[in-house]
Amino acid sequence: MLFNNIVYGPIHSRRLGTSLGMELMPLEHKLCTFNCVYCECGWNTPVSHPKLPTREEVKTALEAKLRQMVNGQCVDGQCLDVITFSGNGEPTLHPEFLGIIEDTCALRDQYCPNAKVSVLSNSTQLGRADVVRALRRCDNRILKLDAATDEMMRRIDLPVNDRLTVEQIMEWLEQFEGDFTLQTCFLRGEHDGKRIDNTTPDELDAWYKAVDRLHPKQIMMYVIDRKTPEENLSKISREEMESIAAPLQAKGYDVIISA
Ligand code: SF4
Questions:
Q1: Which residues does 25 contact at the CB level (< 8 Å), separation at least 6?
Q2: In 9, 35, 71, 91, which residue has its Cα 20 to 30 A from 163's Cα atom?
Q3: Pocket test for ligand 1, best of 30, 121, 122 (most atoms within 8 A of CB)
Q4: Left if phi > 0, otherwise alpha if psi is -120 to 50, otherwise beta: which for 9?
Q5: Ligand 1: lining residues by beta carbon, under 6 Å
């Protein structure tokens, strides 16, 4: 499933509410530093010169949509909960990401002041100062950590950089001092002859420790919901997700379960 416009929606997101989606990656194919086995956009397609929208194109498209919404569909941003950057890959890969976030916050203030600006990111670009600055400008940073062991993170997320470690991601996430939402997709299955399961006692133990170290203000736990590129995956039940969340909720964490 690919998004074919720079601005799409508004759509109802099971995790975010009424959301206007922002696409900074190519409209024809996915571009990401991960290649998650469960990615709703399918597998990465290697392309030598990916075509990204310019900062100006993004600004123009967003302003046109917000103008249209304010004039026709909502008043003072009441019908829009959030402007969300996600889409066909990793939005922070856009070289003008910081400028685009600045434009978006300015347009939001002008047209829909009640809406939040949120970014869903796979956390792999947090070593870049401009990306961290941009994310700090947003209202919500929703940052991925699918597993807290290198082996399982690599099996689930298939990072393009095969030297990426969980410890590196953790250090980057610590920059936000807990002011972010941690997102984790729970799943079981098999890929390339390797078992995938981030719900085993050992994996959960490592993940709980990571949560305690990062102390995120919110945790989003979700399950696969649509067709996945690796077909040999199974969905975790709502009951099991609730039992995974329970020890964190008992400690006072704000946990959202999408299952
Ligand atoms: S990080 Fe997101 S966009 Fe990238 S492969 Fe994983 S699910 Fe897909």
A1: 31, 32, 50, 52, 87, 88, 89, 90, 91, 93, 94
A2: 91
A3: 122
A4: left
A5: 32, 34-36, 39, 41, 89-90, 122
| Confidence (pTM) | 0.94
Model confidence over 185-197: pLDDT tens digits? Answer: 999 999 999 999 9
What amino acid is encoded at 66 in this protein?
L
pLDDT per residue over 27-69, tens digit each? 878 899 999 999 999 999 888 888 899 999 999 999 999 998 8
Which residue's structure tokens are 């008992």? 250
Two tokens, residue 64: 């046109």
CA distance 35 to 3: 17
Neighbouring C-beta atoms of residue 229, cutoff 10 Å: 17
DSSP 8-state secondary structure symbol assigned to residue 133: H
- What distance in angstroms lies between residue 86's CA and the mean position of ligand 1's atoms? 9
Place of tokens 């890969």: 93
Distance 122 CA to ligand 1 centre (A): 7
